[in-house]
Design brief:
alpha/beta; 37 strands; 35% strand
Length: 465
């Protein structure tokens, strides 16, 4: 049976090679067209199957006229860009080599202003790999990796020392990461990244903007490290439930604004480690929905100078956790007199101004115990948990010091501007819960309670004095 399978695979490979050679011999020659073209030319490739290992060594535009497939034959790179001002559009690139050492890619480029638009990448180790390629554009591509264990896959998109790149409207499925290292001023918008390791992986990349992206069903939605001045707006981080399972992980980040994002169904919605790291920096998290995660926000004990306002903390198993011994100091959950919505708040609003009349305090004894000893999470929702909490209510002397205090808790969830198309993908419970929340938000928008005046004022000023 094994011999038959090998023979069948060999026959398929030979057939593909014969088809590619036949197409090139009887029809269009891509390499020849490139060699004959003048700089700045537009080359239109007729539909067909072509052999890979093509090099573009002059400024020109390569466009697929119909269904154009370029096959790498299972070795090396499919297409290499060795000139500035090259555009590749409307091609299908497939079947690279499998060498992580050689970083085999569908398209690799090492010159400025490369544009890779509306291409499809199938059975590739790395999808698009730009090295020292500033001012490039990666737009509208579909990328999926080889069917290998995740550590052996390449990255769907990797940018190294490539500042001012635009990455938008791409779909990346089942690759390893989407990587941005040593690349400043990059704009990532409307990308969908799923079923990978790190949806987005940043290191040493400053002044970047992440807007309207969807990072779902990865091990980690985004892990952002050692960078400055990052804006995260209207993104969805959903069902990222690997071993760490962060919706977003932030380590040694400085200069962050996070607003109008959705964090739903992750192990940890937001994980903060030494962020911000510089003593003169303050980070603001505003108008985010943090819902149905195991932990909404997780702090390492030394983290300070984070401000949370107008966020919706909805039915997380643990709203806020401290991962390790120590107290949560120097972080604030009320900014300019506006706090956050907490679904477990038990206070009241007698003057009907939209704010609770008593403080929100996170002081659950069982939560305090599992922060110190994570193995106790196995007793969540058990009679043991209920017994511990009952004892804390009956004997206040054992109630721990509050982890956090919100002095102006909101009585209702806050609207966000994000639009999401999150799919269940095996997490039907989370999806159903999100649907219930969305239904509640619609009811609110329909006039059950007017949008408070303080919210409009906070929107106008950005929530910061």
């Amino acid at each position: 049976m094994r011999v038959f399978s090998l023979i069948l695979v060999g026959a398929v490979v030979c057939l593909a090679a014969v088809m590619a050679k036949a197409q090139n011999a009887s029809g269009f020659d891509i390499a020849g067209a490139i060699a004959a073209a003048e700089e700045g030319s537009v080359i239109r490739i007729p539909a067909g199957l072509y052999a890979g290992h093509i090099t573009i060594d002059k400024p020109l535009t390569l466009i697929g006229d119909g269904k154009v497939i370029i096959d790498g034959g299972g070795g090396g790179d499919v297409l290499t860009i060795l000139a500035a001002d090259v555009t590749v559009k409307g091609l299908t690139l497939r079947n690279t080599g499998k060498s992580l050492d050689k970083e085999n890619a569908g398209i690799t480029g090492t010159f400025p202003r490369a544009s890779i638009i509306d291409c499809r990448f199938e059975d590739v180790l790395f999808g698009i790999y730009l090295k020292e390629a500033p001012d490039s554009v990666i737009r509208g591509n579909y990328i999926t990796s080889k069917l290998l264990p995740v550590p052996r896959r390449g990255d769907g998109i990797r940018r190294w020392q490539s500042p001012r790149v635009i990455v938008e409207d791409n779909t990346v499925i089942q690759s390893r990461d989407v990587v941005m290292w040593f690349s400043d001023g990059v704009q990532l918008r409307r990308n969908r990244i799923s079923q990978g390791r790190y949806g987005l992986h940043f290191m040493y990349s400053d002044g970047n903007i992440l807007e309207d992206n969807q990072l779902e069903n990865n091990s980690v939605g985004a892990f952002l490290m050692y960078s400055h001045d990052l804006t995260i707006r209207r993104n969805t981080f959903a069902h990222n439930r690997g071993p760490s399972g962060y919706g977003i992980g932030l380590k040694d980040m400085d200069g962050l604004i996070a607003e109008d994002n959705i964090f739903v169904g992750n192990r940890i919605g937001i994980h903060l480690d030494n962020t911000p790291s510089e003593i003169d920096r303050v980070h603001v998290y505003r108008q985010n929905i943090i819902a149905y995660n195991d932990i909404g926000i997780a702090f390492m004990p030394s983290v300070t100078r984070n401000y949370f306002t107008m966020n919706t903390m909805l039915e997380n198993i643990e709203q806020v956790a401290i991962l390790g011994s120590g107290m949560l100091k120097g972080n604030h959950f009320t900014l300019d007199g506006v706090g956050n919505y907490w679904s477990d708040y038990r206070g009241f609003d007698l003057d009907d101004d939209g704010f609770g009349d008593v403080e929100y305090k996170a002081e659950g004894l069982f939560e305090n115990l599992i922060d110190r000893e994570p193995k106790l999470r196995m007793f969540l929702f058990s009679p043991a948990q209920r017994a511990v909490e009952m004892a804390a209510r009956a004997f206040p002397i054992v109630t721990p010091r509050p982890k956090l205090i919100d002095t102006a808790p909101l009585m209702e969830p806050v609207r966000t501007e994000v639009v999401t198309t999150v799919q269940p993908s095996g997490y039907s419970m989370w999806f159903a819960a999100l649907g219930l929340f969305a239904a509640g938000a619609v009811c609110m928008a329909g006039g059950v309670r007017p949008w408070p005046a303080w919210a409009d004022a906070a929107n106008a000023t950005g929530g910061v004095a």
